[in-house]
């Protein structure tokens, strides 16, 4: 099956500054593809090139088999786009705005807008200018999903959403994939992409430094663990912790009656969980894997040699 998106040797200059330096990737039809990278890495720029909002300086792009430059409104209707920054000025209600978008995006199944709004907890009767950031984001999501496009391009889709709504969004992504839609999304949070994506591309300073399946990425991710234990001397706790495979950077934060230790853990957490189960814990925090730490650990290769 042809790729839903293919980008080859994409470069983009703004003035004399090149911000994409030969980006290559392919997104399989029907898959969820996440691009992660720190602020300014070029995620939004890449997405805007895919949608022909801006044009690459060089390189080739195919979106749903078509060059976005030539696709026009017909191609645009097959795509749902959530921009990173929504400019929703106006005195109209959410419902009116969505009706306006429907005229551009093509038919929306009956009841679909209300169903999506209800799932996300969005009041469509409110004026847009009165909506909070999170509610504007929900409106943007309804707009992107409502016509069930073949391809969804979502720039930082959960930005501003509370955790429950984020969960609902993840369910929407799973359902879209189940229907055969392709999803291309960006985030700077690895944990978010892990929950939804099949494949992750890591973009740093305008270069894709790795494309990995999510399972491979998760295995390589480094997390920080912190726990407090009683009834054991700090140095004994340190010895046990140090003996766990994948543990590093062990530190004693407190050793006054109880011992509080912190460390990093990479890869499988099972051995750590087993060791912790043997202690009397009064506190335990296993943090989300840190994007930078995970990326730097797995892809410590110098940037001059991108894959
Ligand atoms: N219109 C523009 N004119 C000049 N420079 C731009 C323009 N748009 C983006 N840039 C620059 O291109 C680089 C990549 O920006 P981009 O917005 O694509 O990054 P990003 O990965 O989406 O970051 P963020 O996570 O902060 O949204 C940045 O250095 C940014 O300043």
SSE topology:
Layout: E1 5-14, E2 17-27, E3 32-36, H1 43-50, E4 58-63, H2 68-77, E5 79-82, H3 94-105, H4 112-120, H5 133-145, E6 151-155, H6 163-178, E7 182-187, H7 190-196, E8 199-204, E9 207-213, H8 214-220, E10 222-230, H9 234-242, E11 247-256, E12 258-266, H10 270-277, E13 280-286, H11 291-298
Parallel strand pairs: 3-7, 3-8, 5-6, 6-7
Antiparallel strand pairs: 1-2, 1-4, 8-9, 10-12, 10-13, 11-12
Helix pairs in contact: 4-5
The structure holds adenosine-5'-triphosphate (ATP).
The count of β-strands is: 13
What average pLDDT do the residues reach?
A: 90
Within the CATH hierarchy, at the fold level, what is the topology of the largest domain?
Rossmann fold
Structural class: alpha/beta
Second CATH tier, the architecture of the largest domain: 3-Layer(aba) Sandwich
Number of domain modules: 2
CATH class of the largest domain: Alpha Beta
Radius of gyration: 23 Å
**Strand order in space, largest sheet:** 5-6-7-3-8-9
Topology pattern, helix = H, strand = E = EEEHEHEHHHEHEHEEHEHEEHEH
Domain ABC transporter: 5-230
Family: Belongs to the ABC transporter superfamily.
Membrane topology: Peripheral membrane protein
Pfam family, one: ABC_tran
């Amino acid at each position: 099956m042809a790729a839903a998106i293919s980008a080859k040797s994409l470069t983009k200059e703004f003035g004399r500054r090149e911000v994409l330096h030969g980006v290559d990737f392919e997104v399989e039809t029907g898959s969820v593809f996440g691009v992660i990278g720190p602020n300014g890495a070029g995620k939004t720029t890449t997405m805007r090139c895919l949608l022909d909002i801006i044009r690459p300086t060089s390189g080739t792009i195919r979106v749903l088999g078509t060059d976005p430059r030539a696709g026009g409104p017909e191609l645009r209707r097959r795509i749902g786009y959530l921009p990173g920054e929504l400019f929703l000025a106006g005195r109209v209600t959410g419902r009116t705005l969505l009706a306006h978008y429907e005229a551009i995006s093509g038919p929306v199944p009956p009841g679909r807008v209300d169903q999506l709004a209800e799932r996300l907890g969005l009041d469509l009767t409110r004026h847009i200018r009165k909506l909070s950031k999170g509610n504007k984001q929900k409106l943007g999501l309804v707009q992107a999903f409502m016509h069930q496009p073949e391809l969804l391009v979502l720039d930082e889709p959960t930005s501003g959403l509370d955790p429950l709504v984020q969960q609902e969004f993840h369910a929407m992504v799973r359902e879209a994939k189940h229907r055969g839609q392709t999803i291309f999304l960006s985030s700077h949070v690895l944990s978010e992409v892990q929950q939804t994506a099949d494949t992750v591309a890591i973009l740093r300073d305008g270069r894709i430094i790795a494309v990995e399946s999510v399972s491979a990425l998760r295995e390589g991710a480094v997390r920080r663990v912190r726990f407090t234990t009683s009834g054991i001397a700090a140095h004994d706790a340190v010895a046990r912790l140090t003996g766990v495979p994948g543990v590093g950077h062990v530190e004693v934060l407190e050793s006054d009656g109880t011992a509080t230790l912190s460390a990093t853990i990479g890869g499988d957490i099972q051995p750590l969980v087993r060791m912790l189960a043997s202690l009397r814990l009064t506190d335990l925090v296993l943090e989300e894997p840190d994007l930078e730490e995970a990326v730097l650990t797995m892809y410590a290769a110098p940037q001059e040699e991108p894959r």
